[in-house]
Amino acid sequence: MRLPKPSTYTLYKTLDRMPRGRRIFSYAFTRKAPFFATIKPTFLEIRPHLARVRLPNRRAVHNHIGTIHAIAVCNGLEAAMGALAEATTPSGMRWLPKRMEVDYLAKATTDLVCTAETTEADWDGAPDVPVDVRAVRADDTVVARGVIHLWVTPRPTG
Asked: Taking a C-beta distance cutoff of 8 angstroms, is the pair 57, 112 a contact?
């Protein structure tokens, strides 16, 4: 008999209670979605309607002026959105990112905290669910802000 695979959110809640659990979860998340490994995210908080991810400021994600590259910031925003979607999407439903709108507001010169947020009302508008995202520097300056639109539909049966 094959046991059901635990949800991403269940795995996070389990590991978050353990020493180095966030680090282990972050590594596992990047193994499942390898393109996130390039930004080396640390998941700080995941719960329905909210996810926060730290994106470290390191040379590997810098652009030609020595700040975090815009697409690396977008990867951080998308990682936060994905964690939120995993924690919030009702059972029997699935999600896919459909569109991303991002405004770049300031240079990304420090580690960033990327946050994704929704409300219950946002999910009432499914299949199109807007997820507000933002990336914030250590001095509380908002570096990027936007919306990632999800397409939330019933999971196929069979």
From this structure: yes
**CA distance linking residue 25 with residue 143, whole number of Å:** 26
d(CA 121, CA 2): 36
Q: Sign of torsion, CA 31 79 75 21?
A: negative
Instruction: Could you please state the CATH topology (level 3) that the domain comprising 8-154 is classified under.
Output: Thiol Ester Dehydrase; Chain A (3.10.129)
CB 145 within 8 A of CB 112: no
Q: What is the pLDDT of residue 101?
A: 98
The torsion angle over the Cα atoms of residues 33, 39, 45 and 51, rounded to 10 degrees, is: -70
CA distances from 7 to 10, 11, 58, 107, 124 (A): 5, 6, 31, 36, 22
* Percent of all residues in the chain with a pLDDT value above 70, rounded to a whole number: 96
What is the average pLDDT across 38-57? 97
Residue ranges covered by each domain of the chain: 8-154
